[in-house]
């Protein structure tokens, strides 16, 4: 059996000196698959992504990428290993142009000619960015900003791209375009791990899914199984009201 690309086990984490948001979170991420994490607000979904990429200190448990333990590593060190992260707020530089923002995706690169080649390659792949390369990122529409944030991760040629709520605040048509980009990433050999408020559409595009609730992973498996599970439908997919208890 092939070893997972990324394995998270027994994670406990929180913010500052506050209580733990994650209490026993775990996840197995397979290579070149789309993984979608769903769950109610406050379940710890975003906290899990921030723990993986080093933005939050892990209090207990392990994050292992390709056999290497990530606990205690800085975000820039984790990025250098091949894990990119697009937060909810997209983290663009609003006063910088589209091209300048794309260059920032390769800020660690020493070969500037190669950097410019990759920027050009990304703008060819996303024509809207090429059309607006001299426009300030802060003046783009919400969908264009999300496209730029996702495209910027490709500059560093990551093995995993983590997306926190990529559809947040976007019109339905734009949401479909965002998930087309997610699918394109996976088809290009990139593993995608995303947290998605629109659980149904997230799972429809995903190969595997996980349900996070009250800081714990309560279900993990093929996305199609999660979509068809009656109790998960009732509790997390808008299929009716019910008291949340461990599955």
Give the N-terminus to C-terminus distance in angstroms: 27 Å
Helix content: 25-40%
Strand runs, count: 10
Order of helices and strands: EEEHEEHEHHHHEHEHEEHH
Q: In which order are the strands of the major sheet placed?
A: 6-7-8-3-9-10
Shape descriptor reads: globular
Beta content comes to 15-25%
SS-derived structural category: alpha/beta
Instruction: Give average pLDDT, whole number.
Output: 92
Oligomer: single chain
Biggest sheet record: 6 strands, mixed
- Report the total helices: 10
State the low-pLDDT regions, or none.
240-246
For the CA atoms, what is the radius of gyration? 18 Å
State the main characteristics.
10 strands, alpha/beta, 247 residues, four-stranded antiparallel beta sheet, 10 helices, globular, disordered C terminus, six-stranded mixed beta sheet
């Amino acid at each position: 059996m092939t070893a997972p690309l990324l394995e998270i086990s027994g994670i406990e984490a929180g913010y500052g000196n506050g209580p733990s948001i994650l209490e026993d979170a775990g996840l197995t991420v397979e290579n070149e698959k789309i993984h979608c994490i769903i769950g109610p607000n406050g379940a710890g979904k975003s906290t899990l992504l921030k723990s993986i990429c080093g933005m939050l200190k892990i209090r207990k448990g392990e994050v292992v990428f390709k056999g290497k333990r990530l606990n205690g590593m800085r975000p820039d060190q984790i990025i250098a290993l091949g894990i990119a992260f697009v937060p909810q707020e997209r983290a663009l530089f609003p006063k910088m142009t589209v091209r300048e923002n794309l260059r920032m995706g390769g800020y660690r690169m020493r070969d500037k000619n190669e950097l410019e080649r990759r920027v050009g390659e990304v703008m060819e792949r996303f024509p809207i960015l090429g059309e607006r390369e001299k426009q300030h990122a802060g003046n783009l529409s919400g969908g264009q900003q999300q496209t730029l944030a996702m495209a910027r991760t490709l500059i560093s040629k990551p093995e995993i791209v983590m997306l926190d709520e990529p559809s947040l605040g976007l019109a339905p048509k734009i949401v479909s375009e965002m998930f087309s980009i997610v699918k394109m990433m996976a088809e290009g050999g990139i593993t995608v791990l995303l947290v998605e408020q629109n659980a149904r559409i997230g799972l429809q595009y995903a190969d595997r899914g996980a349900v996070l609730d009250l800081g714990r992973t309560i279900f993990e498996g093929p996305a199609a199984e999660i979509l068809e599970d009656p109790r998960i439908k009732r509790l997390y997919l808008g299929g009716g009201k019910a008291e949340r208890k461990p599955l």
